[in-house]
Design goal:
It contains twelve helices and 14 strands. By secondary structure, it is an alpha+beta fold.
Length: about 425
């Protein structure tokens, strides 16, 4: 025992982290698991060009298939300002990749009999039941005014999980409802999750719950709902329910002081425009955004993805039952307007419903989501593939970059 401790003491902190970081075994070659080495090398070459051009400060990328890591690459800078190189254990703001994690925690409560997907949200958050639907109309003076009316039905937990709640993001439009979000300071990190819901309840719904799909603060409300039922702050609940069981040691709403040197930062865009993160990772914020506030690493998120790809269990721990996960990753939007062709939405995940129609290649049944700074993950049960893309880039570039990564990974499948 003493000899073992002595050996570990000789290992650097980085070496220990790397030794622990193997969330999956590695394939001898990508071809061992039916992937093309040449195509994966192309992804690395293209990303290196993006780094050299200043489009991407740095990136950590990974593709796993058939239970093994087939390829990974770490390129560029963690922090352009300091010149520090990107590392496999760099910590990223994952923004909306927070949503699947919070959705899993909510569905754990369903499995525990503490919550039902069809429950009205107002049962747990009464103020949400007071919200009216706002419709813009032209007033007598020719200016737009909001007409308020009761929703056709109550908002349910399912609406929060699949984004059919009537809630939106204030930044995604310029109408009176969007302005109401801005005026109410929805998402201000100085407010607690409880205060966030209280403020949100004073603004109008954009449409009656269930009528359409629209991306918004639904999962932030879900995060507060988890707090109320679980009895802990959202970060504490996620740590106990997801992070600790999966060995996700670097995930949370704040980066501790001793890990700040690993935090990835956006760099300036080509032309010199600054890349500004939406939040500091050590600002002590009271707001633990269930929709976009987590930070994490490639290894941590891979561990979460492995559990999903294994039907809800990994590392001798079970997050969810197999049928619960199948329910979550089915399409819950149906024919409702709002989703792009070929793509639906489940309970916390985008879900592919058709091989064609969508502008990106993929398999029916694959699911995942992305983050505001360009991060992306998806799981394809049919091809047994997990892909994760970790970057910190600015809004104008993020969609094109992650779509390019997705297309190029799909092209690597040869068997």
């Amino acid at each position: 025992m003493r000899k073992t401790i002595g050996v570990l003491a000789l290992l650097s902190a980085t070496t220990v982290a790397q030794a622990r970081a193997e969330a999956l075994p590695r394939a001898a070659t990508p071809e061992e698991v039916g992937l093309s080495s040449a195509q994966l090398k192309r992804i690395e070459e293209v990303t290196r060009k993006h780094v050299d051009a200043g489009l991407v400060p740095g990136a950590v990328m990974l593709v796993a298939r058939r239970g093994k890591i087939a390829w990974s690459a770490t390129l560029g800078k963690r922090d352009v300002a300091s010149g520090d190189a990107m590392k496999p254990d760099s910590i990223f703001r994952i923004y909306s990749m927070t949503k699947p994690i919070v959705s899993v925690a909510a569905m754990q409560l369903v499995e525990e009999g503490k919550l039902q997907v069809g429950d009205p949200v107002s049962r747990y958050l009464p103020e949400i039941g007071k919200m009216k639907v706002g419709t813009e109309k032209t007033g007598a003076d020719g200016r737009p005014v909001l007409h308020l009316a009761d929703p056709e039905r109550a908002m349910t937990v399912q609406d929060l999980l699949r984004h059919t709640s009537g809630l939106t993001y204030g930044s995604r439009g310029s109408g009176l409802i969007n302005q109401a979000y801005v005026d109410a300071k929805i998402g201000d990190r100085s407010f607690s999750n409880e205060e966030f819901v209280s403020r949100l309840s004073t603004v109008p719904l954009k449409f009656s719950p269930g009528a359409r799909w629209e991306y918004g603060v639904s999962t932030d409300v879900l995060g507060r709902l988890v707090e109320v039922i679980d009895g802990r702050r959202l970060g504490e609940a996620l740590a106990a329910r997801v992070f600790k069981p999966m060995g996700m040691v670097d995930s949370g709403f704040q980066v501790p002081a001793d890990k700040l040197g690993r935090a990835a930062q956006p760099g300036p865009r080509p032309g010199g425009q600054p890349g500004t993160p939406r939040f500091a990772v050590n600002d002590g914020a009271r707001y633990e955004s269930g929709g976009g506030g987590l930070t994490s690493t490639m290894d941590d998120y891979l561990r979460f993805a492995v559990a999903l790809s294994n039907g809800g269990a990994a590392y001798d721990q079970r997050l969810l039952g197999k049928q619960t996960l199948a329910f979550m990753t089915a399409d819950h939007t149906g024919t409702r307007p709002g989703r792009p062709p070929g793509l639906g939405f489940g309970l916390g995940f985008e879900v592919r419903t058709m091989t064609g129609e969508a502008a990106l290649p993929g398999s029916v049944g694959e699911y995942g989501w992305a983050g505001n700074a360009g991060t992306l993950f998806w799981i394809d049960p049919r091809t047994q593939l997990i892909a994760i893309y970790m970057v910190q880039v600015s809004d104008p570039d993020r969609v094109a970059l992650r779509n390019q990564f997705r297309s190029m990974v799909q092209a690597a499948i040869i068997d």
